[in-house]
Amino acid sequence: MTQISRQFKIVVLGKSGVGKTCLSLRFCQEKFYQTQDATVGASLLTKTLKIEGNEIKMQLWDTAGQERYESMTPMYFRSSAAAVVVYDITSKQSFEKAKFWINQFQNFFSEDKTIFLVGNKLDLSDKRKVETSVANEFAQRNGFVFFEASAKTGDNVVPIFEKLANVLVQETQETPKTQKQILQHNIKVAEKEKQKDCC
């Protein structure tokens, strides 16, 4: 039996209709539905990837994009490792909304979290309203990973989540060392304070 060595909670954010559910389904189940009901609250999809010999379980929390559910969405941020923020390349409004969700996600945490910015509906590039260069520059300026993809054709969908899994695995390998260093520093400080008190 294969043992899951790590699992990561990922929230998928964005305006209603940008294709969050379609992207999640394409990655997790290799399916695409031309018509898709709007998500209510959030739905959970999972997929296991093999990264560096380890089985990595990706838990995708596909959140509702409709405005009436906006106040509920942050409740799904808790304990998430990263966010995939989606916009529609044929809609400038959805790109601006992506910025809103990025701010919401960042403000929820006291520490930096991994954010992937994804322009969906690449199959409709002839109707593009958000230039690749604009989105890419925004992502680079803010330290996000940027992709464009098509949930309909499947183009570039898997690479998004494979890259995300690799980034998260690397982060977890680095984090214990950092935490250990912090702990060692705190112990040294405490010992110095103790020595001062003794004198």
From TrEMBL:
SMART domains: RAB, RAN, RAS, RHO. Transmembrane segments: none annotated. GO terms for molecular function: GTP binding; GTPase activity. Signal peptide: none annotated. It comes from the Eukaryota. The keyword Nucleus does not apply. SUPFAM superfamilies: P-loop containing nucleoside triphosphate hydrolases. Keywords: Nucleotide-binding. InterPro entries: P-loop_NTPase (IPR027417), Small_GTP-bd (IPR005225), Small_GTPase (IPR001806). PANTHER family: PTHR47978. NCBIfam families: small_GTP. This is Ras-related protein rab-5c. It comes from Anaeramoeba ignava (Anaerobic marine amoeba).
